[in-house]
Design goal:
heterodimer; A: mainly alpha; Alpha-Beta Plaits; 2 domains; 3-stranded antiparallel beta sheet; two-stranded antiparallel sheet; 12 helices; 5 strands; globular; B: alpha+beta; two-stranded antiparallel ribbon; 8 helices
Chain lengths: 267, 277
């Protein structure tokens, strides 16, 4: 069980949040109501998705105070502490893409690393920028009309309907199409959190002295370009694209990786 | 030298490719988005902004739908259990834009709660509290304008001469939003028609009439006001109504057209030419 610690903690958090949201609708619980778009914590504290709030602003609507304050709270939380942790600790699509990724490894679909000419990891930043343009042109928050994240979450809370097809599509794309295709290449929400969380405090730290160079961490990491220091130097993973999922820490048998607080002092 | 030239060329090529693919994505995405939000015949919760603004403002959080289904009054009187809520969050296969709240009165109408629980919970302002407040700043659900009930005469059995006042009695604004107009039934010579007439200045569009209608497919149904209503324009005013006459002042000088293409011609010519289609 030792090498599943963070994985289990993440699943507990992800599913726990969904249970709270589900209960808010089904049983009238007040702990966490709404959806990721905008929520109410204990019926008092507003929370809102900063990326969605920016889309609304580009669509030409100045959102209500609750949404603006909520977006600020979420932004500060991830900017100061969490980094891109939304993606691996909160987002329900993460469970779908992790499953696809795991199956890929089991089925041996990853035998050869493929270089996708048309789909680079930078695509998400282009899509991020495009979201605001399309929102401004069409007058509606553009990503929110096809976001598999909120479609899946609303599906769990209010019932799925045809929305389930989007979730299946993401699963098939990640399994048979591009490795880490959705979360690692396309998702503009992940891109937004990469930018928001770039300077956050919680970081994975590598200890070069303990590393035996087995590269298990790189195999399991969904954004393995961020692990460029493995077996090279003892520094923290400072890239914003790291989702702080802790899988690398789980699979490391040499105690060469662990969570730490980013050192503020530059060398 | 040639090496740096090559890498520069490669840089330009990849940038151009990225820009091109982004533009392609943008076109497809905008097209889909325009289609997806074109869902005119959708009824929104009380206090909703006009559809165009509502689509910009709604964050699809579902707090209104949760407040609706979990309100204390939402119990089945016979079983004592909770009923389905009025407000539904649109799924991929619904006609409303995905994730936005809407209701279908024939399924579950709006029960017009006095405290309007669905509106104050809206975090974004898509459901506008001031639009439902009276002079004393109290919530007044009767100020809601979710839609307008429309009667289809040919399928309404009251227009056949049968006695039915189901919609009239279901209306929460009894004898205000729907009144019964008495008319002589010439077919029998000794009976009366009791005809439902909807008054658009009072009707909230709650849909309790549509739910109550006894015909197989409701003969009275709620449409968004924008689609159920016409507009006479400010150059038609009621000359016998001094208040209505003031509307004439709304006309802007540059909108008043007294001279058009036809004015060039002699009336004798165009009247004798027949109708142009």
């Amino acid at each position: 069980m030792k090498n599943m610690k963070y994985l289990l903690l993440r699943r507990f958090t992800q599913i726990g949040l969904l249970v709270l949201y589900f209960g808010a609708n089904a049983y009238g619980w007040k702990v966490l109501a709404g959806t990721f778009g905008s929520s109410k914590l204990f019926g008092v504290v507003p929370l809102a998705d900063p990326f969605m709030t920016l889309q609304m602003l580009s669509a030409g609507f100045v959102a209500g105070v609750d949404v603006l304050v909520g977006a600020l709270i979420i932004t500060l939380f991830y900017a100061i502490f969490g980094g891109r942790a939304f993606c691996s600790w909160v987002c329900p699509i993460n469970m779908v893409t992790d499953l696809a990724n795991w199956l890929r490894r089991k089925l041996g679909l990853d035998a050869k690393e493929v270089n996708y000419r048309f789909l680079k990891r930078s695509a998400r930043y282009w899509i991020l920028a495009l979201t605001f343009v399309v929102s401004a042109i069409t007058g509606v928050a553009a990503f929110e009309i096809l976001s598999p994240i909120t479609i899946m979450q609303r599906g769990i809370i209010f019932g799925f309907g045809a929305g389930i097809s989007v979730v299946i599509a993401i699963f098939l794309f990640d399994l048979f199409g591009v490795k880490n295709g959705w979360c690692g290449h396309l998702c503009p929400l992940g891109a937004a959190y990469s930018i928001i969380g770039k300077y956050s405090l919680i970081r994975v730290k590598h200890n070069h002295e303990a590393c035996t160079g087995c590269m298990e961490c790189k195999v399991v990491c969904p954004e393995n370009q961020v692990l460029h220091m493995i077996n090279k130097e003892s520094i923290s993973v400072t890239d914003g694209e790291c989702t702080n999922c802790g899988r690398c820490i789980d699979v490391c048998n040499d105690d060469a990786l662990g969570f730490s607080i980013r050192s503020m002092v530059k060398k | 030298m040639s090496n740096s030239n090559n890498s520069r060329r490669k840089f330009f090529a990849t940038t151009l490719q990225s820009v091109g693919l982004t533009a392609l994505g943008g076109l497809l995405w905008s097209g889909y988005s325009d289609k997806a939000k074109a869902s005119p015949l959708v009824l929104r919760p009380p206090g909703a902004l006009p559809e165009e603004d509502f689509l910009k403002a709604c964050v699809k959080c579902g707090l209104c739908a949760e407040a609706c289904v979990n309100r204390d009054s939402n119990v089945d009187r016979e079983t004592g259990k909770q009923r389905p809520g009025t407000l539904k969050m649109a799924k991929g296969d619904d006609s409303a834009l995905i994730g936005t709240p809407f209701f279908e009165p024939r399924d579950v109408p709006c029960y017009m709660c006095d405290d309007v629980p669905c509106v104050p919970v809206c975090p974004s302002g898509a459901l506008d509290i001031p639009s439902l407040q009276n002079e004393k700043k109290e919530m007044d659900v009767n100020k809601a304008r979710m839609g307008l009930a429309v009667v289809h005469k040919e399928s309404c059995i009251a227009f056949w001469g049968l006695q039915c006042d189901a919609c009239y009695r279901a209306c929460p604004l009894l004898d205000e939003a729907i009144t019964l107009e008495y008319q002589k039934n010439d077919r029998t010579g000794k009976h009366a028609f009791l005809l439902p007439v909807v008054h658009s200045d009072v009707c909230t569009g709650c849909g309790l009439c549509e739910k109550a209608c006894v015909t197989e497919k409701a003969a009275i149904f709620v449409l968004p006001r924008e689609y159920a209503m016409g507009k006479a324009g400010d150059h038609y005013v009621k000359g016998w109504d001094t208040k209505d006459q003031q509307r004439v002042g709304n006309r802007k000088l540059d909108q008043i057209i007294t001279h058009d293409k036809r004015s060039e011609k002699n009336p004798m010519d165009y009247l004798n030419k027949g109708v142009e289609y």
